[in-house]
Amino acid sequence: MRHLLLSATILVACLSSAVPTTAATLPGTVLVLNRSIPYTEYFGKVLASFQSTLKAGSDIPITIYSEQLEYNHFKGPEYENLLYTFIKEKFRSTPIGVIVADGFDALQFAVRLRTELDPAIPIVFSNIDDGTAAELRFLSNVTGTTIQRPVSHALITAKVLVPGLRRIAVVGDPLEEQAYRRHYKKEFLAIDKGVEVIDLTGLPMNELRKQVATLPENTAIFYTTFGSSGAGYSSNDGLALVAEVANRPIVIDQETRLGHGGTGGFLVQAAPIGEATARILLRLFNGESASTIPVVAGEFVKPVFDWRMLKQWKIPEDNLPSGSEIRFRKSDAWQQYRPRIIAMFAALLLQAALISWLVYEIGRRQRAEIQSRSAVAELTYMNRRAAAGQLSASLTHEVIQPLTGMLAGASAALRWLRADKPNVEKAEAALEAIAAAGHRACDIVASVRAMFKKEAPQKVSTDMNQIIGSVLSIVRVELQKHGVELQTQFNEHLPTVQGDKVQLQQVVLNLIMNGIEAMQSVSPRVLKVQTDQPKAGILRVSIEDTGIGIDPSKLDQIFKPLFTTKATGMGMGLSICNSIIESHGGRIWASPVVNRGSIFKFELPINTA
């Protein structure tokens, strides 16, 4: 029947003697004829891609009309004539530039329609298989694209999904009623002789669900479409009902079936068909003739599979055809949250680095504090040793003369008493002198004021700025602990002095610590350390604090041994400083600051060697 209708259509087209309309006279209108029902997902994608491509590439405004022929619901010559009359009358007064026919039935209708509207209207078809398109080569002013949908694709997919395939169950409407799969029935006769075809087409849904739930092993299901039989199911709804109970994986051949229970297969892609059809129309509107544009077999089929179904049927992805696309893949946490995970690990690494750095810094500061305290303790110990040595030296120096006098007096008294005529008066005088000397020695021991003098220090060329810098590093913790602001002003070109580095460190340390202690009860706390050269041959060091200051009446006493203004002081620190500076040929003094605090200065002779 199809071939008879096709022959009649070709005859009508060949009898038409109209010359094809040129591009300059093509109206900017397109009539799209779809053989199916309105609003199917597949045709919706075809039409959307067709419209967007056509309007984006055209320089003229184009109006698109769409008519659904609904051949899957209505059939017969009476319906055909009514439909033909309706569309012919509907567009009789509307100039049509191009007719687009989706499917073979739509193409037959388009050829008949244009004989009434305008025999010169070009026709562009789509969704027709290669075999059918070969029979259209005699049609005038007709071109389009074909698709390759052989049964062999379904067989290849079935063997991938079911290793050791023995049977393939065909499900859906009867094949002779399916516009896009009519050729399948003939092809199934030539299918692999090792594979049995189980024909389940045309069955009621209840019976079909029972059949697909009890299929034998080594069987695959090939789902085509529902809709032509008037069962009331859309194609995707029917697929979902079958997949719900099927005990074998389901092969499909159309993209819009994916996601409704089909495992996958070589699927016809809807959007590329619409785009390819639109590009042919753009060539027509640009001046080409449909007769000169060859029919092209489009690349509209691609192996696509549903990841969820592959997992359900335990089908390895390595078994799929080359170039297969896998959709609906559930990404793992790494794939889904990769940026967040990377950011989280980066934050953790940064935090770990910061924590490690803080631990290192705390340890370093603790070690520095321990070293600083050790240095302070060492210098304090040296102070105490120096104080003890100074006290011993002072006692020795002061007491040695009375003791010498006492020895001399005792010798004299003995001589006067051992004489042939003892001289008692002179002996008494000598003894009284001895007693006086003893009392004087006791007074010296009880009220030692003079500082001792050690052996001459081992003096070397010394940089005073370095001496002060080393002391400041020692007391850095104390400065921070008491909230003291340190201000320094060093003469970078200061000459060196001849001195004992340890002793000079001791002097600077004593003066700085005295300044820190003097500022404990005041605020702000500022310690200023300065070196300069007031005149040729002299180096001066100044240490100024903002403490409680010095009573001017006591300035003359503060450098004397055993004099102190502190409740717990020994009265030896400044005395030791004075002794050390004097031993270096310098001088030390103190003075109050005008506003608040005090300033200690000492001068040393500059090294002239």
Describe the structure in your own words:
It contains 18 helices and 20 strands. It is α/β, with parallel strands linked by helices and 609 residues long. The chain folds into 4 domains: 2-147, Response regulator (Rossmann fold), CATH 3.40.50.2300; 151-268 and 300-334, Rossmann fold; 341-446; 460-605, Histidine kinase-like ATPase, C-terminal domain (Heat Shock Protein 90). Strands 2-1-3-4-5-11 form a 6-stranded parallel beta sheet, sandwiched between helices. Strands 15-17-18-20-19 form a 5-stranded mixed beta sheet. Strands 7-6-8-9 form a 4-stranded parallel beta sheet, with helices on both faces. α5 (130-134) links the parallel β4 and β5 (142-147). It is rod-shaped and about 180 Å long. Mean pLDDT is 82; it is low at 1-24 and 447-455.
Quick description:
By secondary structure, the protein is of the alpha/beta class.
Look at the helices and sheets and give the structural class.
Answer: alpha/beta
Give the CATH class of the largest domain.
Answer: Alpha Beta
CATH topology of the largest domain: Rossmann fold
Mean pLDDT: 82
Strand content: 15-25%
The Cα radius of gyration reads 58 Å
Our measurement of the CA-to-CA distance between the termini, rounded to an integer number of angstroms, reads 130 Å
CATH architecture of the largest domain: 3-Layer(aba) Sandwich
Residue windows where pLDDT falls under 50 for at least 5 positions: 1-24, 447-455
Tell me the domain tally. 4
- Sheet bearing the most strands, described? 6 strands, parallel
Walk across the major sheet and give the strand order: 2-1-3-4-5-11
Rough shape?
A: rod-shaped
Q: How many distinct helices? A: 18
CATH fourth-tier homologous superfamily of the largest domain: Response regulator
Quantity of strands, as a count: 20
Share of residues in helices:
40-55%
